[in-house]
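Sequence in, structure out.
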Amino acid sequence: MSDERPKEPTDATQSTGWRAYRREITFLVVFLVLLAGSFTLISWNPVNDLVIEPFTGGVAVVSGWTLDLIGQDVEMQGTVIRNSRFAVNIMNGCNGVETMLIFLSAVLAFPAPWKMRLAGAAFGVVAIQLVNLLRVVALFLTGVYFPDFFDASHTVVWQTVVILCGVLLWIVWADRVARPAPAAAKSA
C-alpha cells in the first residue's frame, strides 16, 4: 500500500509570479509610455502652436456661443470671453486636453479589439469636451454671479470634476469591454 496521494492536475498554461500579471503589467507600461509621450508631444512648441492653441481657441469660441445662447451677451477676443461684469481667458490647462490624453492613453493601452478602442476614444473625447464646455460656462457664470467663489471653483472643483469624469468614463468603458460576451441561448 502506497502512502502517496493522487496529484492534482496542473494547468500548463497557468503562470506564476509576475507572469500571472503580464496583461496588467503590459497595460500599465503602455499606458505610462503613451501618457508620457503625449504630454511631451503637446509641450513641444510646434505642436502647441499649431494644434493646442487653435484647439483652445475653438473651446473658447464654442463656450462664447453657448454663453450667448443663454443670454450672457459676451464678446470674444482671441481666447478671452467677456461681458460687462466679468472676463475669463481660456488657456492651456482649461481646454480639457490633459484629461483627453489621460483617457486616450488608457483606452489605447487597454487590451481590447481596435474597433472597440477607436469607438471608446471617439466617444470619450466628445464626452470630455462636453464636460469641459459645462466647466467653462459654469466658471464664467460663477465669475459673473458669485465672484468670491471663482478661484476655488476653478482650481478645486472643476479641475477635479473634469479629470474624474475622464477617469470614470474609462472605468465604465473598460468594464463594458472586459465583460465576457453573453452565451448564446440554447435552442430546445
